[in-house]
Amino acid sequence: MAKKISLTHSAAVILHVLAGGYQYGFDIMEITGLPSGTVYPALRRMEEANLVRSQWEKAKIAQQQQRPPRKYYQLTKTGEELLQEARKRYRFLESMALNLPVKENS
Amino acid sequence: MMGGRKTGGHQLCEPGLRLYFRLIALASIIVPSHFRADWRKEWETEIWYYWAELKEWRRLSFETRLRLLNYCTGSVRDALSCRLRGVEEARLVEEIRSGLQTLCKRPALSIAALMALALSIGANSLIFAISHTLLCPLPFENPDRLVRIWDNFSELNLTRLPSSVPEYVDFRNQNQVFSQIAAYKNRNVNLMIGEKTIPIQSTKVTTEFFSLLGTSMVNGRAFTESEEEPGKSNVAVLSYRLWHDGFAGDPHMVGRAIALNGESYTVVGIAATDFDFPGRTDLWTPIVIDRGALTHGRASRSLNVIARLSPNRTIADAQNDMDAIARRLQVQYVGNYTEGMGWHVTVASFQEQFVGGYRPVILTLSLAVGFILLIAAMNVANLLLTAAEERRITHLATGGSRRLLIRQSFIESMLIAIIGGSLGLFVAICGIRLLIASSPESIEWAGEIHFDVMTFYFTGALSLLTGFALGLTPALLTLSDKINGVIRQSLHAVWKKLHCCRMQGTLMTCQVALSLIFLIGAGITIQSFLRLWNMNPGFDEKNLLTMRISLSEYQYSTNDRVVEFYREALRKAASLPEIESAGAINSLPFTEGRYNWSLMMSDHPPAEPKDTPCHELRAVSPNYFQVMGIPLLRGDHFTEADPPAVIINEAMASRYWPGGDPIGKQIKLLSHDSQPWRTIVGVVGDIRVEGPDKAAEPEIYLPYYQFPLRSMTLVLRTGASASNIESRSRELFLAIDKDQPVYKFETMEEIIGNSLSLQKYSTLLLGLLAAMALILFASGIHSLMCRIIDQNRREIGIRIALGAQPGDVRRLVLAQGFIIMLTGISVGLAATLPLIRWMPRLLPGVSAVDPIVYLNSVLLLTAVAGLSIYISAHGATKSNAVDLLRSSPPS
C-alpha cells in the first residue's frame, strides 16, 4: 500500500537523478551533492511509500567480476508519475536534466 | 568480525577501510535488528565501491578520504531514521505526548522544575561563554609557541618583573631555544594633528616585534634592524584605528612626518586592521638599543620580553636555557645580581599571562553554577520521581514491562531537560547582554563575551546529560522494585513507604548539604571582598583627582629642568580656585608601577651582601602626605631646605626600629652612582593595598627635588563640587609646555574601584548565584515536603480521625523535616572540610575559616527550610480525615 509522501525538494532531485540512471546511494550523493544523511533516509522513505524499489544484484554476476554485489534503486510506476508532477512544480529539474552526465548502465 | 566480513563471497574490509567500517558497525547498533544486516551490508558495499574507484583512478588523497568519512557520518542519521520510522516512530510520538501530559498534569510543579533547569543551565552556559571568551587562543600566529620571559627576585618577594635593555640583548644573543625574541614597553605621548595636541598610547618595540607576532602591514613596512640604533629611530608605525580616525585613512600617509612630543617622526607603516597589541596602542616606535652603553642600566627594568619557541622546543627547554644564561650573567655582572636577592628568569606561556589572573575567578564561578545545577536537578528529580511512582503502580498493575517503564522515565526526563535547556539558551543570551551592559569599563574583555556555536553545543550537551542523569532516579526506583519483588508481596506497603521515604530523604539531605556548601563558599568569598572593599586604605580617597605626566627625555635631559617643570606645575595647579592643594608622586598606590631599591641603614649593616634590604621607594612632593590625608606619626614633613632627607612608613619603622625612634637615623640608596646618606625626618602611616589582613610592606619616601623622575602622577585635592577640573588642569599644564602629554585623568576612588573591579564583578555574580541557589533550595524543599506529606496522607488521615489536633500533625511533619535538615547540615558541614583546604588555593588571600559565615549560612538555610516545611505542614492540616483517607495513594 503506497503511503502518502510529501515530495520535498531533495526527494524530487533524488527521483530525478534515479530516472537519469544513477541507481546507487553513493552515486546519487556524488551527482546531487546531497549529504548521505539526507539521501539514504529519503530513499528509505520513498521505498516505504512505493516510489522506488531496491534490489540486491545477483551474487553470481558480482562473483564473476570479482566484486561484491551492490544494492540498487529503481523508480516504480508511482514514482515516475510523481516525478512528472514534481518536474512541473520544480522547474529547475528540467534544466538539471541538461547538465546530468550520461550514466552507463553497469 | 569486520576484517573477515564477506559479501557474496567477496572480502570487503581492506586495511584502509577499517575506520569507515568501524563507524558503520557502531551506527548499525541503532538500526532495528531485523533490518540491521541488510543495512550494514549496503553501506559497507557502497564504501568499498567508492574506495575501489578512487584507488583505480589514483585519487586517494587526504581530501577524498575526508569526504568518504563525511559520507560515513551520514550513516548515523540514516540509522536513526530507520530506528524512528514506522511503529517506532508512532510509539515515540505517543510516549512524548504522554510525557508532555504528565508535565501538564502538575503545571505549577512543572513550571517550577522548568524554571529551575532553565536558570541553572542558563547560568552554566553564561559562565561557559565567559570562560570561552577569556580562555580562547590569542589572535596571533601559532599562539601556543609564544612565551613571556620574566625577571624575578625570589628573596625579595618580587616576581614577574620586566627586564632591562642589557638583559634583553643578552637573552637575544645567547639563547638557543627561540626562533625570535622581542621586547616592548608602553609610553604615553602627545601627537600633533594640525594645531591640536592629543594624548595617545604609544608602545616602543624592538624590530622583531611584528614578525614574531605574525602580523603584516596594511601599508608600508615594519621596523628594520638599523632603526634600533640611536639617531635613526624616529620612525613610527600607526595603528589602523589612528590612521583611519586621526588621519582620515590618508593613502599617502606612509613616508609623511608626524610630531610626537615635539619631535618629528616618519611614518613607515600602517598596522593590520585587527592588530591591537598591547591593548589600545595607537602607535609603535622602535626601542633604541645603544650597543655601546650596554654595561649600564642593567637594574632599570622596563622591557616586557616575549619570544617564539623554535620548532621542537618546549617551554621546559626554554626554561633550562634561560637558567643557564642567568647563571652566566650572575657571574659576569656580580655587582648587579647580589646573591641574596635570588634573581632568576622564568619562561611562561604567553596565553597564561592573560588568563592566569582570571582562572581562580572562572573556577569559582564554574563551581558555583555546577552546584546550582545539582540543586536544580534535585528539584526536578523529585517531580519525576512523583510521576514515575504513579506510573509504576498503574503500569505494573496492568502487566506492563519494566523496560517500557524505564524508557518512559528517560523520555520524560529528556523532554524536561530539552525544554529547560532551550529556555536556558535564552537565559544565557539575556545574561550575556545584561553582563555586558552592567560591566565596568575597566573590565575590557566583558564587551567581547558572546554567544557562539561552542556555547550552543555546550548547552545542548549539558541539557542531554542532565536529562540522562534525571532519568536515572526513576529508573533506579523501578529497578530496585524489581530486585525486591519477592518481599514485595508480603511487605509491599511497608517496603514501599520506607523505600520512597528513604529516597526522598536522601534527595533532601543531599540538597541541604549542597546548598550549605554553596552558601558557605559564596559567603566566605563575598565576606572577604566586602572586607577588602570597606577597608581603610590609610588615606582619604575622596575628592582626589589624579593625572600622569611623562616628560620627554630629550627636552628634559637634566634634573634641574625636571624639578623646575613639576615645581611650576604644582604651583599653577594649587592656584586654581577649585583646588585645595596639589601634590605629586612617582608611583601612586593601587596602580601597577613598582620602584624597589636596595638600601643600607647606618645602624643595620647587613651581615652579608645577601641580607641587603630592598624596599619600595616613592618620590613625592613635600606636601604629598597632607594632600592625600596620610597621617604624620612622628617627626616632620619635608622642607625645601632639608639636607638629603627621607620619610619612612610605620611598617618600616616597626621592622627596623621596633620600640625605638627612627628619627635622625641614616639611610643610603645603593646605586652605581654615589648616593648620599639621607636622614629620616618623619614617619607616616601605612597604606594598605593588598587588604586588611595583609601587613603593609616597608616603604621609603624621598622629596622629588632630591630624586627627580620624569614620570610623575599629580594628585589634586578638589572641593566637593569641582567640575571641569580635568580640562582646566590639562590646559594649565599644556600652557607650561604644550609638548608634554598629560593623561590618565582618574579620581582616586576610580583607581581603587578599578583595582578591585574584577573581584567586585565576580562577587556580584556570586551573590546573584547564591540568591538563585537559595530560591531553588526553598522551592525544592517545599516540593519534597509536599511529596512526603502526599505519601503519608493515610497515616495523617488516621491520626486526625483518632482525634489528633492540627498542631499535632504540624509538629509531626515539622519533626520529619527537621530530622532530614539536621542530617543534611551535618553532612554539609563535614563536606566543607575540604573547602577549608582548597579555598586559599583557589582564591589566594581568602581564608575559609570564618565561624560567622558558617553560623550565618546554617541559620539562613534553617530559616528558609523551616519556612518551606512550615508552609507544607500547614497545608497538610487543612484537609479533614475523610478527604485525606479517600485521596491517599494505594498501598
What does this structure look like?
- The complex is a heterodimer of chains A (106) and B (891).
- Chain A has 106 residues and is mostly helical.
- Chain A is 56% helix and 9% strand.
- Chain A has a two-stranded antiparallel sheet with strand order 1-2.
- Chain A is elongated.
- With 891 residues, chain B is α+β, with helices and mostly antiparallel strands.
- The longest helix of chain B is centred in the middle third of the chain and has 50 residues, at 485-534.
- Chain B has 25 helices and 24 strands.
- In chain B, 53% of the residues lie in helices and 16% in strands.
- The A-B interface holds A 24-26, 29, 35-41, 44-45, 48, 59, 62-63, 66-71 and B 7-10, 12, 41-42, 45-50, 52, 70-78, 81-82, 85-86.
Write a short abstract of this structure.
Chain A has 106 residues and is mainly alpha-helical. Chain A has helices at 9-19, 25-32, 36-48, 59-64, 77-89, 92-99, and strands spanning 52-56, 71-75. Chain A is elongated.
List the helices and strands and how they pair.
The complex is a heterodimer of chains A (106) and B (891).
Chain A lengths: L8 H11 L5 H8 L3 H13 L3 E5 L2 H6 L6 E5 L1 H13 L2 H8 L7
Antiparallel strand pairs in A: 1-2
Chain B lengths: L5 E2 L2 E2 L6 H11 L4 H24 L5 H23 L1 H20 L1 H29 L10 E8 L4 E4 L3 H10 L3 E16 L2 E10 L3 H4 L4 E4 L14 E4 L1 H7 L10 E4 L2 E9 L11 E4 L17 E6 L5 H18 L10 E7 H6 L3 H39 L4 H37 L14 H31 L1 H50 L9 E7 L8 H17 L3 E7 L10 E6 L12 E7 L3 H5 L3 E4 L9 E5 H7 L9 E4 L7 E8 L14 E5 L7 E8 L6 H12 L5 E6 H8 L1 H35 L1 H9 L4 H26 L1 H10 L8 H26 L4 H7 L4
Helix pairs in contact in B: 1-2, 1-3, 2-3, 4-12, 5-11, 5-12, 5-13, 5-20, 11-12, 11-13, 11-14, 11-20, 12-13, 13-14, 14-20, 14-22, 14-24, 15-18, 20-24, 21-25, 22-24
